[in-house]
Amino acid sequence: MARYTGPRCRYCRVERTKLFLKGQRCYSDKCPMNNASEHGLPGKEPRARSKKPTDYGLMLREKQKLKRTYGMLEKQFKLAFVEANRMAGKTGENLISLLERRLDNVVYRMHFACSRSQATQLVGHGHILVNGKRVDIPSYRVKAGDVITLSATAKNMPSVKESLAEYGKSGIVAWMTLDEAQMTGTFNAVPRRSEVKELENINEQLVVELYSR
After folding, report:
1. CA dist., res. 102 & res. 140, Å (int)
2. What percentage of the chain exceeds 70 in pLDDT?
3. Please, which of 41, 55, 95, 211 could form a disulfide with 46 given CB 3.0 to 4.6 Å?
4. Nearest Cα to 148, choosing from 126, 118, 178, 124?
């Protein structure tokens, strides 16, 4: 499976906003985006790309922000959009609902991993059980009522315990519940667009317009 292995902070600098690709580490003082004025755009000649963006450029940036937030490559993201477009309702809201149902995203939301990339690794290595059955596909779509559990091996991982410690500080999103002691979470319902506060800086309608050109 293809995946991006380069520096993740570069993505944040390109989009000029925090994408929280390293999870809670992005809240620390060491995050390069805290001193964005010192770093600026990546590359040798960032001034050449600092002109006023075109309408297409604005739509492209919104698509890239959304795609990179969920750690997806272009082909996979486009397939999700096509499926969202076939569903009843607003395409942009449908797209975000589909992305939120990805298993790697759910694992991250439940504080079993510090970032979505770490959650993808947990799923890929077979450490996640859905309704008691092992699932190793990060793009697996979770349904309302599904119970997510860690494997016996994962429950003893220091990285998992470190991530779960954040649950006591920030809690969990409204559409999930978590039993911290048993390391088990339940996906209660598909979230509405207004509930996904992390994406307040993204205009999904521009993504729809880009793919509709």
Report:
1. 6
2. 76
3. 41
4. 178
The pLDDT tens digits of the residues spanning 157-174 come to 999 999 998 887 788 999
Helix (H, G, I), strand (E, B) or coil at 23: helix
Q: What is the pLDDT of residues 99-155, one digit of tens each?
A: 999 999 999 999 999 889 899 999 999 999 999 999 999 999 999 999 999 999 999
Helix (H, G, I), strand (E, B) or coil at 179: strand
Report residue 180 as tokens.
């911290």
Same domain, 54 and 113: no
Q: Which residues of 149-165 are buried (b: 16+ CB within 10 A; e: fewer)?
A: bbbeebeebeebeebbe
> Is residue 56 located within the same domain as residue 108?
no
Q: What residue type is assigned to position 165 of the chain?
A: A
Q: Virtual CA dihedral for 24, 189, 127, 104, nearest 10 degrees?
A: -50
Cβ neighbours for 187, distance < 8 A, ≥ 6 positions apart: 101, 106, 142, 143, 144, 145, 146, 147, 148, 175, 176
CA distance 189 to 70: 19
In a domain, 42, yes or no: yes
Range of the domain at 143: 102-187
